[in-house]
Design a protein that fits this description.
The chain has 212 residues and is an alpha/beta fold. Helices cover 23% and strands 40% of the residues. It has helices spanning 34-45, 73-84, 129-139, 173-186, and strands spanning 2-13, 19-31, 53-60, 65-67, 97-108, 115-126, 146-154, 157-161, 192-197, 203-206. Helix 2 packs antiparallel against helix 3 (129-139). It starts with a strand and ends in a 6-residue tail after the last strand.
Length: 212
């Protein structure tokens, strides 16, 4: 199974109470197909959208592995250390960011006797670049080959949606429409919008014709 990188345009209610159209990026893990990634993405984002939303793109994610800071232990230690050393008094201790870590596996070619490097792209959740490095080192402890860690860059990914995040019954379009039904009930009278997901029939929500 593959992971897919999805982009979603949606209306979100901001802290000031205003609604703003935003574009967000997610990773949908362990999918059998492009259409599955889009339907799972839509089912996941539905409860968080203030109105119209659209899955505008989906592609195979350019990562070999997704690595988690288990229980947030590394991020907790890194954030507390930054505060203690006076480096950043407002340092986060939550692994709520996603970093692209470029690493190289180093092996020896038996025929030529030369060093061979194999690129390894990891998506790592952590609170900082330093924490992402440490999470990667911890993850690579079981690796039989030598390795080097190269660039570590923060991504715009909001979250990773694992397979268990979406209940089994929501994977079909029929079940997805049931979720839309719940969403419709939460909207006020006089509201009209269309939900679009590539590969699916558009769902139009029209409450303008309801009796006042």
């Amino acid at each position: 199974m593959k992971s897919y990188e999805c982009k979603v345009v949606l209306d979100r209610t901001m802290e000031n109470g205003m609604t703003k159209k935003v574009t967000e990026q997610y990773i949908v893990a362990d999918c059998l197909s492009l259409s599955e990634s889009e339907s799972r993405m839509a089912a996941y984002i539905l409860p968080y959208a203030s109105g119209h939303f659209e899955v505008i793109s989906s592609r195979v994610a350019p990562y070999h592995e997704i690595v988690y800071d288990k229980f947030g232990i590394v991020s907790q230690a890194d954030g507390e250390a930054q505060k203690l050393l006076g480096q950043n008094r407002n340092a986060s201790t939550d692994p709520d960011r996603w970093y692209r870590v470029k690493a190289s596996l180093i092996t020896l070619d038996e025929k030529s006797g030369r060093e061979k490097r194999t690129a390894l792209n990891l998506l790592v959740n952590a609170c900082s670049v330093n924490a992402a490095h440490d999470v990667t080192v911890e993850h690579m402890k079981g690796c039989m080959s030598d390795y080097e860690i190269g660039n570590i860059d923060e991504t715009k990914i909001m979250d990773v949606i694992p397979l268990e995040e979406i209940p089994a019954g929501q994977k079909s379009f029929k079940s997805f429409k049931k979720e839309v039904g719940k969403f419709v009930d939460s909207l006020p009278k006089g509201y009209k919008t269309t939900i679009h997901v590539d590969g699916m029939e558009d769902v139009t929500i029209d409450k303008t014709k309801e009796d006042a």
